[in-house]
Automatic annotation (TrEMBL):
Gene3D superfamilies assigned: 3.40.50.360
Task of the protein: Probably involved in ribonucleotide reductase function.
Pfam hit, one: Flavodoxin_NdrI
Descriptive protein name: Protein NrdI
Similarity comment text for this entry: Belongs to the NrdI family.
């Protein structure tokens, strides 16, 4: 399964590197020709980044799920970008993680990706 991701500070990139799955860092104008899972960061007060939203306008039809990073200091806004993308595009939230994630976050995500890939 392809992982499409965006990372502002490097935390999402470090998380994706731990997955050992094929991955691409998104660009607003790129088109993805295969099913993918999105991993993104959260910005502002729980919003998805503009670059990610531009990418999804073109590519949401192949997205099978979403995961987001965040900071637990934001309380209910923690990794809220995953919830917003899930609601907008009707895909499941596969998880949320803080900073670059723990080994348990990685294990859970790989299991979730396997589940949506086989569905």
């Amino acid at each position: 399964m392809l992982i499409a991701y965006d990372s502002r500070t490097g935390n999402v990139r470090r998380f994706v590197d731990k997955l050992k799955l094929p991955s691409i860092q998104i660009e607003e104008t790129m088109t993805v020709q295969e099913p993918f899972v999105l991993v993104t960061y959260t910005t502002g007060f729980g919003q998805a980044p503009d670059k990610v939203m531009s990418f999804l306008k073109k590519n949401h039809g192949r997205m099978l799920g979403v995961m987001a990073s965040g900071n637990r200091n934001w309380g209910e806004g923690f990794a809220r970008s995953a919830d917003a993308i899930s609601e907008l595009y009707g895909v499941p939230v596969l998880g949320k993680f803080e900073l670059s994630g723990t080994s348990r976050d990685v294990e859970r995500f790989v299991q979730e990706v396997g589940a949506v890939a086989s569905y």
